[in-house]
Amino acid sequence: MQTKEYNREEFDYHQSENNYTLSIPAKFLDAKNLKVKRKNPDGSFSDADVVIREQNHEILIITSVPIDILVEISEQEI
Q1: Who's near 75: CB < 8 A, 6+ residues apart?
Q2: Distance of CA 61 to CAs 7, 17, 42, 70, Å?
Q3: What is the mean pLDDT of each run of 10 residues along the chain (78 residues)?
Q4: Which residues neighbour 18 within 8 Å (Cβ) at sequence distance 6 or greater?
Q5: What is the value of pTM for the model shown?
């Protein structure tokens, strides 16, 4: 399993859709299981309320507010 942390400053704001997005490289498109967790103020992680889409050979993570996240990528089915 691979993990990668992203901070809120890495999200792009889209005024027309009123949301924030983060694009993840295409190399993760083969992932069988991708989980996004929100980083809590105490440093722990919990499930994040995000939408995940594949778009233009990238994975797009969409949220209504920018948050610090941890992405977990597994190449095996869970």
Answers
A1: 30, 31, 32
A2: 13, 14, 23, 12
A3: 92 96 76 85 96 86 96 72
A4: 64
A5: 0.83
